[in-house]
Amino acid sequence: MRTTGTGSEPLTILVTGASAGLGLAICRQLAPQKPRLILAARSPQRLQAAAAELQATGCSVLAVPTDVAVPAELQRLVAAALAQFGRIDVLINNAGIECFSEFDALTEAEIEQTIATNLTGAILLTRLVVPGMKSQRFGRIINMASTAGKHGPAYGAVYGATKAGLIAFTQSLRGELSEHGILSTAICPGFATDGGIYDEIVKATGRRTPPLLGGTTAVSVARAVESAIRTAPPERILNFPALRPMFLFRDVFPRLGERIILAVTRKFLRRAALAKQPSR
Question: Which of 159, 191, 198, 268 is catalytic?
Answer without folding.
Answer: 159
